[in-house]
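Long-time lurker. I teach an intro course on protein structure, and each term I like to show students one example going from raw sequence to a predicted 3D structure in token notation. This year I'd like something fresh instead of my usual example. Would anyone be willing to generate the tokens for the chain below so I can use it in lecture? Attribution to the forum is fine with me.
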Amino acid sequence: MAKDWRIIAYEKKYALSTVSFWRESKETAIGQKEIHSMTEHIYFLNHMLTKQFQVDLAVLNETPIGMIAYNEGEINQLYVHLAHQGLGIGGALLEHAKARSCGRLKLYTFDVNKKAQQFYEGKGFKKIAYSSDNEEGLPAIEYEWIRCLSRGSEG
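-- Reply from a regular --
Happy to contribute to a lecture. Here you go:
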């Protein structure tokens, strides 16, 4: 299957469709309804998340199907529309963030989200800590990825 989607910088015109698939994906992954209203979630995306992180989207025909919020050392959010999971979109968004990182990224995922754990571990992330310090009150796992230097690049 040819790649017919692309990665773009987030724009506010995509807020409703982005938050819609984000909520559905998260709720499915953790088995818990989103604790914030749609209005609060859109406000968070447009006025808080975008101030602290670069937010990029995977879009198919101008419809968002994946999103990632990251900076040089952290991935804060990574979600793919349920209908588009398993097609390499999450991996491409992750590689996109890795390429723009300082060579080390940290992130959290919920302990109940075994699919995400398998995904991140398959992409080179290692478990480094456990926490329950989140709004959902769920146990979470902190992961870290560190870019490996090849022997040829050591100096």
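Some talking points for your students: The longest strand covers residues 63-70. Strands lie at 6-9, 54-60, 63-70, 75-80, 104-110, 126-131, 140-146.
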